[in-house]
Automatic annotation (TrEMBL):
Its cofactor is Zn(2+). Keywords: Glycosyltransferase, Metal-binding, Queuosine biosynthesis, Transferase, tRNA processing, Zinc. It comes from Kosmotoga pacifica. InterPro entries: ArchSynthase1/Queuine_TRR, TGT, TGT-like_sf, tRNA_ribo_trans-like. This is Queuine tRNA-ribosyltransferase. Pathway: tRNA modification; tRNA-queuosine biosynthesis. Residues 244-250, 268-272 are annotated as: RNA binding. SUPFAM superfamilies: tRNA-guanine transglycosylase (SSF51713). One of its GO terms (cellular component) is cytosol. Homodimer. Within each dimer, one monomer is responsible for RNA recognition and catalysis, while the other monomer binds to the replacement base PreQ1. Zn(2+) binds at C301, C303, C306, H332. Catalyzes the base-exchange of a guanine (G) residue with the queuine precursor 7-aminomethyl-7-deazaguanine (PreQ1) at position 34 (anticodon wobble position) in tRNAs with GU(N) anticodons (tRNA-Asp, -Asn, -His and -Tyr). Catalysis occurs through a double-displacement mechanism. The nucleophile active site attacks the C1' of nucleotide 34 to detach the guanine base from the RNA, forming a covalent enzyme-RNA intermediate. The proton acceptor active site deprotonates the incoming PreQ1, allowing a nucleophilic attack on the C1' of the ribose to form the product. GO terms for molecular function: metal ion binding; tRNA-guanosine(34) queuine transglycosylase activity. Belongs to the queuine tRNA-ribosyltransferase family.
C-alpha cells in the first residue's frame, strides 16, 4: 500500500532523501507530520495546512474511537470525508495514549482501562485497534504496541517486547490490508531488547517500521544513543518513522540517523502558550519586552502570520487572552517546522546536509555541530 523510493544518501551520515508513494499521493521524505489528534490540527483550518505545504497529517485511533465514535465515522465514510482532508493521513494505534493512562491493567489480551469521557470500561486489543483504524480509513495504520515508561524494570521491558511482538502478529492477522500497516519496534533503553524486537517485528509483513518508546521523558543523549543503534536494525527499502519528535534538534538527529517520518504536537502546544520557533531559536511572545515591537515573529519567515502581524500585536493578544494569539503562533510554528524539514530535503538533494547542520548549530537550533562519517 506504500512504496519507498530512495533518491539520495548523505556522505557523512545515514540521512537519506526519498519519496513515499501512497494511495493519496506522493510524500517527500524526510517529512514532518502535523498532529490532528481529534480530526483537527488545533487552531488550524485544513486549507491552511495545505497552503503551508503539509503533505500528511496524523489522527489518533484512541481519541476518535471515544469521540465521535465508529458509528459516526462509518456514516461519514471515514476520517478524510469527515474532516474534509484529501491528502494522506497516518493514524496512531492508541498505544501511546493507553500508556499515558495511569489506572490501567495490561495483559496479554490487551489493555483494560476506563474511558476518560464517561468512565466505562474499555478493553483495547490489537484487533480493536485495527478495526478502528480500518474504519477511519487512514492511509497508514500503526500496529498496536506497548510503550513502557522510563525507569521500568528490565524484566518488565523484556515481557513488553514479547507482548508487542505477539500483538503485532495479531494486528497482521486481523488487518484487511485496505491501508498500509507499520510495525513498531520497542525495547525501552536496552540495546539487546531493541535488537530482539527489531528482529521479530521486521520479520513480519509490514509496509514500514517505526521506532517507539523514545522521547518519552528520557535525556537527549539516551534518545540519540538508542536511535543510532536501532535504525541500523531496520531495512533500508522501507520507510522509517520516529514517533513523537518535533523540536529542531531532535528532527536533525532523527534525519542524520536515517529517519524518514516524524510527528509531534509541539508546534501547536507551545504555540498556545506563546512560544514561537524561529531560525534563531525559541522566543516567548508573551514577554513584555515585545510590547512595542513592530517586527514579525521571524524576519526570515514567509508565512502568512509573519507577513501580516507584529510581535507587539501578538503580545497584546496574549495579554488579553485572545484566542487569535494562540492561533497565529500555532500557525507560524507548524509553518516553521514544515519549512525547516523542506530545507533539510533541499540540503540532502544538493549534498549539503553537513553544512546545514553546522548552520543550525551556529544559530543555536541544535546542540551538536559535527557529523562523523559513518
Amino acid at each position: 500500500m506504500v512504496e519507498y523510493k530512495l533518491l539520495n544518501k548523505d556522505r557523512y551520515s545515514r540521512a537519506r532523501l526519498g519519496k513515499l508513494q501512497t494511495r493519496r499521493g506522493v510524500i517527500d521524505t524526510p517529512i514532518f507530520m502535523p498532529v490532528g489528534t481529534n480530526a483537527t490540527v488545533k487552531g488550524i483550518w485544513q486549507h491552511q495546512l495545505e497552503e503551508m505545504g503539509a503533505q500528511i497529517i496524523l489522527g489518533n485511533a484512541f481519541h476518535l474511537y471515544l469521540k465521535p465514535g465508529l458509528e459516526v465515522m462509518r456514516e461519514f465514510g471515514g476520517l478524510h470525508a469527515f474532516m474534509n482532508w484529501e491528502k494522506p493521513i497516518l493514524t496512531d494505534s492508541g498505544g501511546f495514549q493507553v500508556f499515558s493512562i495511569k489506572d490501567k491493567k495490561v495483559t496479554d489480551e490487551g489493555v483494560l482501562f476506563r474511558s476518560p469521557i464517561d468512565g466505562s470500561k474499555i478493553m483495547m486489543t490489537p484487533e480493536l485497534s485495527m478495526e478502528i483504524q480500518m474504519t477511519l480509513g487512514s492511509d497508514i495504520a500503526m500496529a498496536f504496541d506497548e510503550c513502557v515508561a522510563p525507569g521500568m524494570s528490565r524484566e518488565y521491558a523484556e515481557e513488553s517486547v514479547t507482548r508487542t511482538t505477539e500483538w503485532a502478529k495479531r494486528c497482521i492477522s486481523y488487518h484487511d490490508r485496505s491501508q498500509a500497516l507499520f510495525g513498531i519496534v520497542q525495547g525501552a533503553f536496552y540495546k539487546d531488547l531493541r535488537k530482539k524486537s527489531a528482529a521479530e517485528i521486521t520479520s513480519m509483513d509490514f509496509d514500514g517500521f517505526a521506532i517507539g518508546g523514545l522521547s518519552v521523558g528520557e535525556p537527549f543523549q539516551v534518545t540519540k544513543e538508542i536511535l543510532e543503534y536501532t535504525v541500523d536494525l531496520l531495512p533500508e527499502d522501507k520507510p522509517r518513522y520516529l514517533m513523537g519528535i518535533g523540536s529542531p534538534d531532535l528532527i536533525v538527529t532523527a534525519v542524520e540517523n536515517g529517519i524518514d517520518m516524524f510527528d509531534c504536537v509541539l508546534p501547536t502546544r507551545i504555540g498556545r502558550h506563546g512560544t514561537a520557533l524561529t531560525w534563531n531559536g525559541k522566543i516567548n511572545l508573551k514577554a513584555a519586552k515585545f510590547k512595542y515591537s513592530k517586527d514579525p515573529i521571524d524576519e526570515e519567515c514567509r508565512c502568512r502570520v509573519c507577513q501580516t502581524y507584529s510581535r507587539g500585536y501578538i503580545q497584546h493578544l496574549f495579554s488579553r487572552d485572545e484566542m487569535l494569539g494562540k492561533i497565529l503562533v500555532s500557525y507560524h510554528n507548524i509553518h516553521f517546522l514544515l519549512k525547516f524539514t523542506e530545507r533539510i530535503r533541499e540540503a540532502l538533494a544538493t549534498d549539503s546536509f553537513k553544512e546545514f547542520k553546522e548552520e543550525c548549530y551556529n544559530r543555536g537550533l541544535i546542540k551538536e555541530a559535527l557529523i562523523s562519517e559513518s
